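Dear support,

I submitted the protein below through the web form. The confirmation email said the job was done, but the results page showed an empty box. After a refresh the structure appeared. I'm attaching both so you can tell me whether what I see now is the final result or a partial one.
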Amino acid sequence: MSSRFWNLVVSIYGIVLFGLMFLDGRVLVLALPLLIYLGAAIFYAPDEAQWKISRQVSSLVVEQGAPVQVKVSVTNEGRTAEEALLEDILPADISVDEGKSRWLVACDPGETVEYEYTVRCTRGKHNFKRMGLLISEHFGLFHRQVELEAAGEFQSVPDVPHLGHIEIRPRQTRGFTGPIPARHSGVGMSFFGVREYQMGDSLRRVNWKVSARNEQDLFTNQFEQERIADVGLILDARTQTNLEVNGRNLFEYSVQAAAALADSFLADGHRVSLLTYGFGMQRVFPGYGKIQRQLILRSLTQAEVGSNFALESLHYLPTRLFPARSQLVMITPLGMKDYSAFARLCQDGYEVLLISPNPVVYELQMFAQEGQLTQQAHSLARLERSLLLRKLTRLGVVVVDWNVSQPFEQAMYSMLGRQRQFRRNLRGSSHD
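What the results page shows now:
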């Protein structure tokens, strides 16, 4: 019952009481229209709601930020509903892009009405659960409010920038043809050396220039084998390293980078695995191809920032999960105490590529208009981070310091080119 009902009842009671007190029939007659009004409202008062609701979404898996069309079908299996207000109860991370999620209808018994609207959402798994229903009669004195089950779900996977081929050179490869020079002679495209001709060698591989210098023997060209590698992606989901400013978390950029890297390495034929390191350790076991891509994207869709005292440092990374001397890709904003973990990985023979979304620049950009971060504090933080990255580079880690205001693919190629040239110079000087 609504407040209007009680106001009407009080009014009728007051008029009747006033008429009886003064024994005036003309006053009692004034209550008659109100009693008829109340009786009609009671006659048309809604019964228990008997409605059936079904929901359909246009796609079960969509890219982050892509529109999703939602179709709702509502069937009245009870009495006539003169006024029914339907309101879809949306999750907090879903917003209506087109149309509306609230409708006022009149529905006869057995009648079905359908509505459509479009939503957009952030990365993650999204579940529709219930729909609110408010039924009332035209007089507005009686109403019945319930929540009905209207289940539905879909996943919004991270946006995957296209990177193309990424050059990696782990110390150990697998025995299948791929894009990485294996430092062994065999079937390949790159020249590796020459050897004496053996029975069964193709004449097309005879090096006639070298053979011409020798009067007795022929020499054959050798080519370097090209193979695939094991690539382990490690995504840092620790609360203390993933900065959140004005409701926007740096972790979302790390997820985007992990998705792009997984797509690139799988396209090259490598065997890729994923470890999300935060509140717990969520792992996608090594695999190949499109199915592995879907598994990794599904894991990234559900990845969340978390805090765990036992996993505060990268020092506790379970390196046994990754094959020895393979390629590791660390995606982390970095903490000041993470240097020892990288030193251990390099000592164990892993080739390490670091993708580091820059938290210092990110915080400065978010607070620039409000003036909450002084220039001096920013300079000190930037210097401290620069020294840490330089120490990691000298360990042999390839570092990509990513300013997230730039596209990831642009930062990837520009930084990798400079870092690899520095490593070549460093290794050349060490051999001298």
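Response: this is the final, complete result; the empty box was a page-load delay. The radius of gyration is 35 Å.
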